[in-house]
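Person: Please work through this fold.
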Amino acid sequence: MARGIRVEFAGAFYHVMARGNRREDIFFGDEDRRFFLKTLSDACERTGWRVHAWVLMDNHYHLLIETPEPNLVEGMKWLQNTYTRRLNTRHRLWGRVFGDRYKAVLVEGGSADYFSALLDYIHLNPARAGAVKVAGGGSVGDYPWSSVRMVYAGGDRKRFPWACVAAGFEAFGLGDTAAGRREFVGRLDKRAREEMEAAGVVPVPATMDARLSHLRRGWYWGSQAFAEKALALGKDLIKSRRNAAYRSGLVYRAHGAEEAERILKKGLELLQLQIADLDKVPGSDASKVALAELLSTKTSAPQAWTAAELKMKSAANVSQQLRRIRCTRGPRRKKYEKAKRILSDIFD
């Protein structure tokens, strides 16, 4: 069976899900969950993603992602591959962590009904799985690894910079206040109890498509008008992919291309390096490595591109130099730290 296309456009919303290989665990403890959130944080910094909701279960996760730039595929490739490498290294394992392809359901983010239904769907996962016992006086907010506990129930100081709550509170007519946060959690607890009493039947507003299975198995979640718009975009994408020039232009996406080129140009200027002279500067040069690290952490540009632009031989060499610099001491380390301070002016 042919793989479904990923419809990408600026400002798109997605319900992203991934399970462990053979439905095995992808988290072996709380430290792994912290590790995943750190990797997600790195991915958001590289891509500009905004995350409106998430939940981390034992063998799968759910995310509600907004992509200000059309870069879901590039970002998800980096997120899952990086977490796989990091988890395998931590536990001295090898092989796949995730099974099959991640699912990404395109969501009508501008619709309060569809957006709020997806928020509830994600946040109620722990209650539906029995991880919290609302019938026994527990709360959805007791589950420590979801955006309810980590974002919506807390104040500004407890939030990740990439976590967005404004649309979530607005969807339910609540304010980002102490009272609004309590009501946000209380409403979820009430809904969880109602679902238990109704034997798991999930109520939805009359204005919405009642097929909540679309949140897991469909390709879109929204109105018919939204589906027609998304289908038109998908057809355009299929036509474009037949063109070899289009495929070769997909070396890196918007956040990678524009931001990487800006950082590269400004970084070389600040470090007083000329493009024509880069061939004469070793790939292990501390200033080059500092600039390569900035490109790696702030954009989704692949390391093959960074290697070509900075004349650092190959993507493998870039990775090797980034690992080595973290253990370097002495004059080279001082030069690297100085270069990092200079490059920080790019974002001032």
Notes: The longest helix spans residues 72-91. Strands lie at 12-19, 50-56, 60-67, 103-107, 220-221. The chain has a mean pLDDT of 83. Residues 12-237 form a domain with the Alpha-Beta Plaits fold (CATH 3.30.70.1290).
